[in-house]
Amino acid sequence: MDGGQRAALVRLDQEVEAPGPAPASGGPGRFLERAAPEGLRFDYATGRTMASHEPKLVCRGVWKIFGAGGKSLIGTASRPTSADLRAAGAVGAVRDVNIEVREGEIFVIMGLSGSGKSTLVRCLSRLIEPTSGDILFNGENLLAASEARMIEIRRHQMGMVFQHFALLPHLTVLANVAFPLEIQGIERAAREERARRMIDLVGLAGKETAFPRELSGGQQQRVGIARSLAVEPELWFLDEPFSALDPLIRREMQDEFLRLQSVLKKTIVFITHDFDEAIRLADRIAIMKDGEIVQAGTPEDLVLNPATPYVAEFTRSVARAKVVKVASLMRPLNGVLPPASIRAAAPIAEAAPLFSAGNEALAVLDGAGKPVGLIDRAAVVDVMMRG
Amino acid sequence: MSASFPFLQPVSEPIPENPSIATARARWLWPAALAAFVLFWQFGDGLAKWAFSYPRAFEIPAARWIGKATKWLLDEASFGLFTFTDLTRFVAQIIDLPYRVALGLLSTGLLSGQGSSAVQQVPPLSWLAVLAIVALIGHHAGGVRLAALVTACFGFLVLFGQWTSAMVTLASIVVAVPIGVVVGLLLGLAAWRWPVFERVLVPVLDLMQTIPVFAYLVPVLVFFGFGPTSAIVATLIYALPPMARVTILAMRSVPSEIRDLGNMVGCSRRQMTWKIMVPSAKDSLMVGVNQVIMLSLNMVIIASMIGAGGLGFDVLAALRRLDIGAGLEAGLAIVALAVALDRLSQAYAEKAGKPAAGIPAGNGFVSRHPYLAAALAIIVVTFIAGLAVPALQSFPEAWQVSTGTFWSEVVRWININFFDALEAIRNVILLNLLVPLKRLLADLPWAGVVALLALAGYRLGGLRLALLVGVLAFLIAATGQWEKATVTVYLCGVSVVFACLIGVPLGILAAERDRLWRWLQLVIDTLQTLPSFVYLMPVVMLFRVGDFTAMIAVVAYAVVPAIRYTVLGLHRVDPRVVEAGRAMGCTPRQILTKIKLKLALPEILLGLNQTIMFALSMLVITALVGTRDLGQEVYIALTKADTGRGIVAGLSIAFIAIIADRLISAGANRIRERVS
């Protein structure tokens, strides 16, 4: 763990020096964030305004129908209902899905078991052949790509983490992490060197020679994460990565995941059946039901404006104060700045304690630390009271 | 409220449609059919003579066809570039070369010259060298304890003068097992990758496993000639199917996520197979390897009929001389080999599952390959020592021990003192049970029996099963095998009844008593590892040749699954149900009869099924002690190298096995559906 933290810090420093969309806040801020990993997310969330809006992955009208004659079903009716499909003896696992995943964002697909989310993510990487639709990755239609081209893309541009880890039992941690590189034909010294860096990054230094069955579930998933990162993918799929873990470990791994993402800035498609996990991690969430996307938007959108009763059912128990951002209750600046301040991307719950010192309003700062507005005690109390 | 508490609502019994009519029909169907059958049997003789003995004019000359086809394959068949004979010669070459090497190393030494004029240039590995190397392998696979065990097993071979034969047998095993494993693995992989191939392969594997071994000895003999090569081919046919099956299953059971992983990291097809699938399935594949070893050893004696030599030949020869001591020792030598190889392969399987130890430090050859270096050192040292002291090269006869005379004395003593009693038992059972039953079965009209079987098939599994059972039974009659088949069925049936009468109660007793079960397990494991021929010898010594002897040998062999499945079924009964029974105040007897046995019935039926299969496979072997059934027919065909006759009789046995298997499985399934 210690080694991993240190390694991550080294990487952080490199990132600061590196050009490009550097993290917004300056040196002192970084220390704060390290103390409270939760902070990183919000730092990142402001970064969202800085990350390019270019879609990395676009999914247009994707269908996956299991059973005979799937293709003809879509050809005849413009949009077969699930009853149509059932009558034809087919199952619509993914039905007319349209999503856009932007560069550098965490896009969570949330749905209960059987909702088609795992099928959808496998369609995105063409592990499962979609029945119809377009999947554009960096503008290239994956469904038109040849098998050889797909192998090339998967080898160098995609990584995937699996629910049950999918570690190869006969290989050591080091060999497991180096495995994708071995498949690419990279020679042993080079691939092991890179694998060691990844193992450090996920905080497993010292476990290189262990075998998967000697590790705990959380450690095994760290290996899975390191392995998926070894090829330095642009697009990172995580298929219910923490669902098989105990609740406490799950929480720890979520923090770890946010820490990694704050460093790595991958484009992420994250699958989960746990709405709380989705809220905690997502920049944007798509909720799936019976193969369809019911609603897609930021956690705030979903909580404040659920599109259907089905979505409302999920959001009902979510504390609004933890989702609603300061920015959405902000009013314009008027002259005097209050002494206390809060970041625009912080949730209301974080603002509440600052009012205990007798402040009636807080200054709201943008990602760069510049004041952009004010937030009143009354507005915060209102949200807090509604739970 | 009630919607959220569905368990509060009374559970309604599923009501069968029209229960009264259905049960009434079922109740009358069998008595009616049986009555019709008996009437036809008693009075139909004059009406339809054809139904009692199949008319010769309509017989299917399958034996002649197969004989002709074999001849055609041998003389004319050609695949364009090469003929069928070229193909068999090529296969023989592939097997022959490694066999020569293994045999040279273990038994004959390096020879120059041909045939009997051959001169030994370099002696083979001495007994001491083999013993030391085996110990080394044991240590590598499983530490000191395993090393001690396998050394003891091989030491037994040395001490009891079985060494020379054992090494010949070991040489053929050493060749057969890797070929069987590799071919089985490749077949399994092909079946996994191409479903079409699987659809062809699986029925062939089924047939390979139901046809008695003797039946395909004949064509193997015809195609490959008499000698160790054809013995290895026969061994392969017998030992390969489980490997292919295990491979298919193992590939299927690799988690789909692992396959997804392979695709996600961009594996090519070859990388997918060899870097992802096969290593991930290694644990299950090792089970297959173990199976191949054990089945190869099972074949040792039978293979010696077509020239394998070695221990199998010794057993067979002893059986023919009725020399119980020699036969028993050679048989035990096979068991010793089997135990050593079984434990070694299991230890390696376990090791494959565990993480390997770290790569030892050091760069020298010795430190990197300590075991290999030690083995080489042993070979050199024992070679020199063997030249200096001949006793170290080949174990001196004076040091050998034999219990042969002891066993012969025991049997003689029993015969002198108990001959009358044994003879009385034999005669009572033979005259009062076996002979009347045999006559009765031979007397039944074949057409009626076929009809009854088809009816049973219809009741248990619908039209398809009825058709299958009916056609198979008809084919037995139509190829002129009916009379011999009735003998097979009668012997098998009587043996199975006895085996169940002994096995099921024993199983019921053992299921409740852990200590008894542990002892019983030891006994039945030994019974199963002992080569089946070994059973025959003491029985023949005591009861002479004939049906009664065959029956006892079959019962001894077939009682094992009856016990095993009964215990398994009873152990599997849900303890909560038993607890519920106890809570209702059932007596232990009621728990057994009203709960446990009812729930274990499907398993016990499966045990019955296995008992029948075991009995049939043993029955073929008892042809050696003079039964007059299909097994004898196969055996005669073997001695005459008559392919057609052998295969037709062998297929008839397979048909009997298939009919029994499908009917019982269908019955077990119906019961299971009702129970769960």
Automatic annotation (TrEMBL), chain B:
Q: Which protein, by its recorded name, is this?
A: ABC transporter permease subunit
Top-level taxon of the source organism: Bacteria
Which membrane topology term applies here?
A: Multi-pass membrane protein
Q: Where are the transmembrane segments?
A: 127-160, 167-194, 214-240, 292-312, 324-341, 371-392, 440-458, 465-482, 488-510, 522-542, 548-567, 604-626, 646-664
Among Gene3D superfamilies, the record links this protein to: MetI-like
Q: Where does this one sit in the cell?
A: Cell membrane
Homology family? Belongs to the binding-protein-dependent transport system permease family.
List the SUPFAM superfamilies.
MetI-like (SSF161098)
Keyword tags: Cell membrane, Membrane, Transmembrane, Transmembrane helix, Transport
Q: Where is the ABC transmembrane type-1 domain?
A: 162-345, 485-664
Q: Known InterPro entries for this protein?
A: MetI-like, MetI-like_sf
